[in-house]
Specification:
228 residues, 85% helix, 0% strand, transmembrane helix, ER-Golgi transport
Length: 228
């Protein structure tokens, strides 16, 4: 359990405000550190003793402890709260601030976790960091070159598939074009056929109008019957 000093409402409220300010500052640095750590894994020229990934994990645990402490302070504040609507509003406001901090913390942590998983997938089955650190720069560059070469092969395959699909669609379009040209030639040679097609289409339109009119009349009669 986290020990909380102060036995009065004002003392506990003052602790809550100080802790909120501290968490707010740390969350800003936490978010910036999460963005900066995204590029640290790609730059292996200078590897520090403590990289941004370790700093991010350490800061994550520290903020989580502060959030837990603020939650306990809010509970303590609710126990010591004097009666009154203004006091209830103050407690509610402190709980909303805590909720906002928790959501921002979780969002940043989830974004960094997703980025790490994505990097692991792109990196493939690479050896653990302790093994990678022992590789020479030339080995690391060769490894990255192999990954790039594999990616280029996959991209080339997708491009070839897309080009084959485009050629197939072009061939189909030419076929439909020839069929349309032949059909137009036939209708031009035989005007009676063109007239017959026109009459069939006209009859279809007329039948559609008649069916629509019948449906409308039936619907009107049903509504009329339902309201009487």
């Amino acid at each position: 359990m986290t020990s909380i000093g102060g036995s009065t409402w004002e003392d506990v409220r003052k602790q809550a405000r100080l802790l909120e300010n501290d968490i707010d500052v740390k969350l800003v640095g936490f978010s910036k550190l999460g963005m900066s750590s995204a590029s640290s894994g790609l730059n292996s020229e200078n590897v520090p003793l403590i990289n941004s990934e370790d700093m991010f994990d350490t800061m994550s645990m520290e903020i989580q402890q502060l959030l837990n402490k603020l939650s306990a302070i809010n509970d303590r504040m609710a126990d010591l709260a004097p009666s009154g609507s203004a006091t209830l509003h103050t407690i509610k406001r402190h709980r909303e601030i805590l909720m906002d901090y928790q959501q921002e913390f979780q969002k940043t942590s989830a974004r960094v976790s997703a980025r790490r998983e994505r990097e692991e997938l792109l990196r493939g089955s690479s050896p653990p960091p302790s093994t990678t650190a022992g590789l020479s720069r030339r080995d690391q560059y060769s490894k990255e070159a192999n990954h790039l070469h594999s990616s280029h092969i996959l991209v080339d395959e997708q491009i070839n598939i897309a080009m084959e699909a485009r050629e197939h669609l072009t061939s189909q379009r030419q076929t439909f074009k020839r069929m349309q040209t032949r059909f137009n030639d036939i209708t031009n040679r035989f005007p009676m056929l063109n007239s017959l097609i026109y009459r069939i289409n006209a009859r279809k339109r007329r039948d559609s109008l008649i069916i629509g009119l019948v449906v409308a009349v039936c619907t009107f009669l049903l509504l009329l019957y339902a309201f009487h």
